[in-house]
């Protein structure tokens, strides 16, 4: 091994010569430059007995070199494995918070530090690095580097890498017992856009959702069929994805439905805030980082139309002093469509919400992008019965008929009804029956006064 290391040191010296050659090559004729470059590279490889494999964070999934990027499955598995392994073996560690608001820390390998692992009689060295590109915007690209002696190629290719990927997947699954809510950070050009997450703990389910029972069952069946439809989607030649467009007045349960979807399917939620994104490149980077089995949410799409530029031109903001957005409408559409293609082997559910459909460009919500359109309207009697059961434990009450008649002519949202029947201490009333009666009476009076 000492001999090998000595040869490696000699290889490093020759690599330094190559660097000097790269600086001075401009002074040589083209044919001389080509000849020397070829043979110097071979010389370095001859004296350096170590093989290096890099695992970039993003990989080209198009297969034709068209730069259709997606987060590398191998990278995420390796990252999970190295993070677990380095806690007991690395000499330099960096502590990262598991999420934006948590006490749990994850120990990761420090940049440019080296972690050695013995496997199958061979020694493998891992290190993590970053490279920076400055066009079209400054971005950092991370990658892992694996080094090993060339005599252990077969061990590395056949057994070790498979071991790393399988163990990394197991560790990921073990740590994925709780759902996560992601949101994007930073609109500044000087700060790289990224996702930050907290534990997703919203208790909403479809059982607690105040809407028509038949429509609710249709949505549940569609979601379950979609989550189990990998083979079917592959058979018909379509990416395994589903788009939902949920619209209706404020307070009708759009956000609650998204939470119910996440809890039903066990998917993470990515809440994309377009106001925090300054250009198409940043948008593309964030979309590429979304994992499989996730729900991408863009809320209040009707309000965000003003943030999008048309035909690649900046939209004037004469009444605002902050930095202008350069997100184009065509950019949003192309990246959403590209995301479907990139996620062909996974599952991604996109949900757009809006209060006013007439303010949204039809191209964004057409069939093929948004497959299912769900209109959530004002509270109807069936929805009220769900709320009464959840909030008051009532299946029936003498005043339900009056509530039913009032709901036919009054426009109130489920949120308004829920607020009225939420059991609170009404003027010191402690008895539960009196409290229930007070809630029903409060709702009746509010409905009578409603427009």
In words, what does this structure look like?
The chain has 451 residues and is of the alpha/beta class. Helix content is 43%, strand content 20%. The protein contains 15 helices and 15 strands. The strands form 4 sheets. It has a 7-stranded mixed sheet with strand order 10-9-12-13-14-11-15. Strands 1-8-7-6 form a 4-stranded antiparallel sheet, with helices on one face. Strands 2-3 form a two-stranded antiparallel sheet. Helix 1 runs antiparallel to helix 2. The longest helix has 23 residues, at 2-24. The radius of gyration is 29 Å and the shape is elongated. 23% of the residues are buried.
Residues in helices, as a percent range:
40-55%
Mean pLDDT over the residues? 77
Topology, number of strands: 15
Q: What global shape is seen?
A: elongated
Tally of separate helices:
15
The SSE order reads HHEEEHEEEEEHEEHHEHEHEHHEHEHHHH
Strand content: 15-25%
Report how far the terminal alpha carbons are from each other. Answer: 85 Å
Largest sheet descriptor: 7 strands, mixed
Low-confidence stretches: 62-68, 311-324
Give the quaternary arrangement of the chains. Answer: single chain
Helical/strand content category:
alpha/beta
Strand order of the largest sheet: 10-9-12-13-14-11-15
How large is the radius of gyration? 29 Å
